[in-house]
Every structure is written in C-alpha cells, then in structure tokens.
C-alpha cells in the first residue's frame, strides 16, 4: 500500500504526542511469534512467575504452577535454577513443590540409568576342546611311558639322587644380602631326608616372609628344632656325600650353605638347555626359566602360587620330578660330552 510523504509526516506527529509508556509499534505488519516458539514463550512466562516461597535453612523452595508438563516443566525448572544462581543461591539447595505443597522430584538430580549391556555367553570352540582333549591324552601317554621307564631303574640307581632347596632371609642395612634360614632335602621318591630351620647369627632386616615363609619365631634360639649354620652344613654334607644332587638354581643354595659339590654330580634344572629360553631379538642368550613355569608346563601342577609363600620341600620335589622327565636324554648328553673331552685328550 502506497503512503504519501504528507501522510507519513502526520503519523509521526501523532506518535510524538503519545505518552512514553503507550509508544509502541502498532503497524499491522508487526512480527508475530511463530507457532513453534509459543511453547518456549510460555515457559519463559511461567519461569518469570516462579515464587520463592521460603529461603530459611539455606533451602530455596520454588512453587511449580499447575498444568506444566513435558518440556515446559523442564524449562521452568531450568530457568528457576538460573534465577537462584543469579541471586547468589545454590542450585543444589532448590526444592520444587507443587501448588498443594508436595515436593516433586528434580529430573536433573535423578541419575541416568545405564543401559545394561547384554553379555553374550562365551562357549568354547569345538576345535579348542578337541585340541585340549588331544593334549591331555598325549600327556597321559607320556606320564605312563615315564612311569614304565622309571620302574625299570634299579633301586640302587634311584638311591644316588637327592634334591635340595633352601630358603633365605635378608641381612645387612638394605636386607639384600641372603642368609640361610631353612634347608630341605628329598630323595628320588619325594621322601623328606632333612627339613630344618637354621639360626641366623646376624640381625635380620628382611624376613621375606611373603616369599620364604620364614618368620622370626622360626629362627630364634628359642626354637629347639632350629640348627646352627655349622650343624646344618655338616648334616647336608653328610647326606650329599657320593650323591647326584638335583635342584633349581643351586648356585644360590650353595652360597647360602657356604659349600659346594662336584660339578659332575650336579643336575641343575635352571641350566639344562632344553629347559632354558632365549630372550631378545634373533634368539639371543639362553636364560633360565622359573621353577614355577617349568613345573606348570612339564608336570601340569602348580607350585609357588601367587600370594602364597614358597615351600622348600615342594620346590625340591618339583626339581626332582622335572629331572625324571628328561633324565634319559640328560644323561646321554652328559656321556656324549665326556666322550668328546676324552677324544681331545
């Protein structure tokens, strides 16, 4: 619609004469709120009408008008929290109540429920079950073969073998110096030949109980069953005389006992090459494995269980049983080395 300049000037003059509070844009083309904004405007109006009913005991009570549902009620609560925070309040102290005074739950404070993930049951694959059954069958065959071969060994031959294991405690300022605290010897059949605690002449700074199982009461002079280091050394030496000694990392046991044994009569499972493993790139130097791992692999039994202290008798029996598994091949290797040395001479 065309409006002339004269008409526009008259409209401006009329507006100037109106009071300030009545000045507004009365044109018909004034922007009207969109339909999708009506819900938001209603929420703003409701939020502005929130009543702070009570603020004693640092709790702010907000009365929720009737008829608010869904998004409008959620926006009302949100705006009310903002208003309280702007006035220096704490949003955690707000309580929303209905017109009747009943407290309503705050949706923001309700923890979101985690969706429970359905755990699928894992079943073993048929190939794994077959492989395990085959491995168990093979292990039984090997055990039966070892048993049959062991029965053929004369008792006089079996009597030559003795297994040794010792437990140590720590002495010195840092507790890293090992000192003998227990010595155990078993025969071919696992029968205990000697098992004794040993008195420690120096002050113990680390009992290593979690590994050795040694406690203060075991190595005190009040323990009548504990031997002196000298008596223990004499006893062990008498048992080992003319015997083949079996053990694992026997160097440590010899250091604690302060004694030695002929190299030709030592069968150390830590130094037997088929029991060792190479570490590093491209193979590398052979290094000994733990007695626990060897026992698990070759004997299918657990020793030195995590969280439990070691038992020198169990360790000595494990070393002897490991030797039995490879005895035939081990003795052949020794004989071939001796023949090679004799040829060089």
What do you see in this structure?
- With 345 residues, the chain is α/β, with parallel strands linked by helices.
- The protein has 2 domains: 37-104, no CATH class; 156-344, Nucleotidyltransferase, domain 5, CATH 3.30.420.
- It has helices at residues 5-17, 38-48, 70-86, 126-151, 155-158, 209-212, 229-240, 250-257, 291-299, 312-344, and strands spanning 51-54, 60-63, 94-97, 103-104, 161-171, 177-187, 192-197, 204-206, 244-247, 266-268, 277-278, 286-287.
- The strands form 3 sheets. Strands 5, 6, 7, 8, 9 and 10 form a 6-stranded mixed beta sheet that branches. Strands 1-2-3-4 form a 4-stranded mixed beta sheet, covered by helices on one side. It has a two-stranded antiparallel sheet with strand order 11-12.
- Strand 1 (51-54) and strand 2 form a beta hairpin.
- The protein is elongated.
- One of its GO terms (molecular function) is 3'-5' exonuclease activity.
- Residues 160-332 form the Exonuclease domain.
- This is RNA exonuclease 4.
- Residues 1-64, 95-125 are annotated as: Disordered.
């Amino acid at each position: 619609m065309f409006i002339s300049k004269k008409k526009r000037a008259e409209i401006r003059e009329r507006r100037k004469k109106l009071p300030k509070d009545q000045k507004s844009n009365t044109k018909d083309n004034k922007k009207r709120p969109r339909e999708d904004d009506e819900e938001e405007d209603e929420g703003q109006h409701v939020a502005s009408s929130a009543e702070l009913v009570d603020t004693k005991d640092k709790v702010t009570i907000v009365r929720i008008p009737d008829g608010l549902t869904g998004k409008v009620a959620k926006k009302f609560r949100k705006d009310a929290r903002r208003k309280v925070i702007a006035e220096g309040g704490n949003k955690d102290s707000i309580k929303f109540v209905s017109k009747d005074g009943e407290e309503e739950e705050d949706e923001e404070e309700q923890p979101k429920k985690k969706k429970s993930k359905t755990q699928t049951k894992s079943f073993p694959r048929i190939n794994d079950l077959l492989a395990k059954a085959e491995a168990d069958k093979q292990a039984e065959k090997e055990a039966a073969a070892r048993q049959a071969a062991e029965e053929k060994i004369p008792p006089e031959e079996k009597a030559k073998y003795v297994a040794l294991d010792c437990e140590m405690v720590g002495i010195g300022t840092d507790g890293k110096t090992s000192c003998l605290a227990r010595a155990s010897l078993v025969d071919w059949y696992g029968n205990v030949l000697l098992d004794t605690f040993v008195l420690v002449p120096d002050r113990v700074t680390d009992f290593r109980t979690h590994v050795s199982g040694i406690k203060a009461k075991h190595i005190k002079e009040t323990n009548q069953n504990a031997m002196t280091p000298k008596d223990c050394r004499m006893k062990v030496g008498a048992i080992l005389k003319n015997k083949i000694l079996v053990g694992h990392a026997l160097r440590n046991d010899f250091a604690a006992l302060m004694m030695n044994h002929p190299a030709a009569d030592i069968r150390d499972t830590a130094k037997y090459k088929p029991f060792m493993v190479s570490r590093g790139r491209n193979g590398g130097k052979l290094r000994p494995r733990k007695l626990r791992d060897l026992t698990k692999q070759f004997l299918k039994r657990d020793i030195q269980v995590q969280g439990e202290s070691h038992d020198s008798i169990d360790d000595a029996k494990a070393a002897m049983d490991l030797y039995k598994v490879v005895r035939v091949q081990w003795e052949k290797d020794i004989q071939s080395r001796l023949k090679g040395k004799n040829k060089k001479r």
